[in-house]
Amino acid sequence: MSTPLRFVVVGLGARSRTWLRVMQASPDVQIVGLADPSPAARDAALKLLPDATVAAEISKLTQMVEADVALLVTPPGGREGQIEACLAAKLDILAEKPLADDVSSAARHVRAAEAAGRTLIVGLNFRFLPVTVALKQALNAGIVGAPEFARFTYERWRDGQLPHLNKYPLVMDHPMLWEQSIHHFDLMRHVYGKEVTRIHARTFNPSWSMYRGDANVFALLEFDGGLHVSYQGTWAGGVDRLDFDWRTDCTEGVLIQREMFGDLVMARRHDTSFKPVPTLPHEPWITDAAALLEMAVAAFRGTGPVLCSGRDHLQSLLMLAACIRSSDRRAPVEIEELRQEIIQPEDTP
Ligand SMILES: NC(=O)c1ccc[n+]([C@@H]2O[C@H](COP(=O)([O-])OP(=O)(O)OC[C@H]3O[C@@H](n4cnc5c(N)ncnc54)[C@H](O)[C@@H]3O)[C@@H](O)[C@H]2O)c1
Question: Sorted alphabetically, which SUPFAM superfamilies does this protein's record hold (predicted)?
Fold first, then answer.
């Protein structure tokens, strides 16, 4: 068995609680350090990991303890200093999504990691859900033919004041897009194996929303090869529940994911009922994070592929930026327009 990779965890808020549980259960990981400016957050994490070295900032922590990898579980804005400190200490990075709160910053993080020769992975845990694996397999196997159009709806009343939830999304310009739709857009790219070329979107905020920025995203996404997806997401739904529905219409039938964590069904054109598509057992938030961690550990060790690289993630972030521009412009936006503007000029050596 290989020696465990030494991780430092940067950011000890809501999401870190899942990560600490998952990492503590992994024989591949040893948590050696914890960083957070909040004394209360550090104390709570130290109760779980009394032997870990703690500091308020990652730049201090890296001077106190030797490590191999940093897990960034901080808010996406303002990660420049964290990334710089990690790279200076020669750490590989597993960063929670979104990598940054704008595409230019994310592109800078990606370039900095590449220049330093470190691996940068983004934590897109939904790719590792058994239902996602089954949906991708079903599409790849063509069990109902090739996809031509789809509808993706995510309708949720998210009470952003709940004590166990993070608070920064309450004041973001586009909380739905950057915190939630990013998962959905990444999932679409992942399962369809295609890139979006054009987006026509409208973002807005319902009158009763508790979010300062837009909690609603309506978008028509055009993928290469002609696949069209109609997307509707909200954190300010009219009723306190979460409804998820992702239906993909294919040349010979449909595949429908009826719940966020499962309930995948299929039907051929003239079937009169839906047939379940089997998925492996799982524990929401845990199994997916554990599978993501397994992938990341293998990638950092050089024994497996990097499945959610920072560079790949830029493509999903461009989709968010395109939604914002399209909504402002009241017209469709080509992804290429944004890529050339935001990513390519600085990428040329
Ligand atoms: N993949 C998922 O399913 C999922 C779920 C929830 C959150 N997230 C992501 O996880 C990240 C963190 O979200 P959260 O809900 O834990 O937020 P949070 O606000 O609850 O916690 C963030 C923590 O980071 C700390 N922090 C701020 N600046 C820091 C710095 N410079 N160094 C060290 N720590 C710092 C804060 O004090 C806080 O304790 C975000 O990117 C979010 O989108 C992902």
Answer: Glyceraldehyde-3-phosphate dehydrogenase-like, C-terminal domain (SSF55347), NAD(P)-binding Rossmann-fold domains (SSF51735)
